[in-house]
Amino acid sequence: MSSYVFMRLLESSAWRYDRGMRLLSRGRIGKVYESMAAMVARPGIRILDVGCGTGGVAVACAARGAEVVGIDRNADMLDVARSKTLPFGARGTVEWLQLGAAEIEDRFGPSSLDAITACLLFSELSPDEQSYTLETVLTRLRPGGDLVLADEIVPASVARRFLFRMARAPVAVLTYLLTQTTTRSVEGLAESMRAAGYVNVDEQRPWADFLIVSGRRPLEAA
Ligand SMILES: C[S@@+](CC[C@H](N)C(=O)[O-])C[C@H]1O[C@@H](n2cnc3c(N)ncnc32)[C@H](O)[C@@H]1O
Fold first, then answer.
1. CB of 11 closer than 6 A to ligand 1?
2. What is the pLDDT along the chain (222 residues), one digit of tens a residue?
């Protein structure tokens, strides 16, 4: 799905984002939100969803009883998120804040979060922003707390990589011409997490060019 670069277009028309993402992902994005929530969300735990957009992951976590804060720098995406209701009977909560990833350090105290999620955020960050975010987030997780990221990757096989790049290039140019922004498929995310100090790093590839990666803040040395 090299067309994820179209996400940038969808973000400039936030009320169309959910429908557009369902089309781009051929209906699979909802399963990604549910998988991420299933990995971390439990009743009463405190979760931060960074780059929450229209709230897919945050709502799925709150539906499982978690107390979620969704942050995003785009006010229009947050308006869509705020319009959503939790499923009947859900006991979790969700709060939406307009905040950039770089402001996490100021807004959330050290070790104050049980889990952190970010879906399709890292492909919008520069390599320096990615490293900074991984390092900051580690200090905001409690020891033993989990980070779960999901994003577009370049496929592993040579043939698929070739096709992926051929298909992506024109879409990226068109998106850039229309929005003056683009996304880049993330590379080496699991290695970057290990280098930043996460343990138990684990990767799943639900399809060829999509990755869900989780890692844990180590328990303090005894
Ligand atoms: C492709 S959307 C993903 C939204 C949502 N997580 C999802 O999976 O549907 C990326 C979101 O990240 C937000 N974003 C990008 N860079 C950000 C940053 N530095 N800080 C906070 N949000 C950011 C964008 O505004 C956008 O809503």
1. yes
2. 455 656 666 777 888 889 888 888 889 999 999 999 999 999 999 999 999 999 999 999 999 999 999 999 999 999 999 999 999 989 999 999 999 999 999 999 999 999 999 999 999 999 999 999 999 999 999 999 999 999 988 767 777 767 767 666 666 666 666 666 666 778 899 999 999 999 999 999 998 889 999 999 999 754
Residue 144 CA to ligand 1 center (angstroms) comes to: 25
Residue-wise burial string across 116-131, b where 16 or more C-beta atoms lie within 10 A, e elsewhere: bbbbbbbbbbeeeebe
**Ligand 1 atom nearest to CA at 55:** 5
Per the document, the length of the chain is 222
CA 167 / ligand 1 centre spacing (Å): 23
209 lines ligand 1 (CB under 6 A): no
* Dist. CA 134 → ligand 1 center (Å): 15
Output the pTM of the full model: 0.90
Q: Ligand 1 centroid vs 165 CA: distance in angstroms?
A: 23
Q: Nearest 10 degrees: CA dihedral of 135, 131, 94, 184?
A: -170
Domain boundary assignment for the chain = 2-216
Q: Residue 41 in contact with residue 47, Cβ under 8 Å?
A: yes
CA 97 to chain centre: 16
Judge: domain 2-216, CATH 1.10.150.240: no
**3-class SS of residue 108:** coil
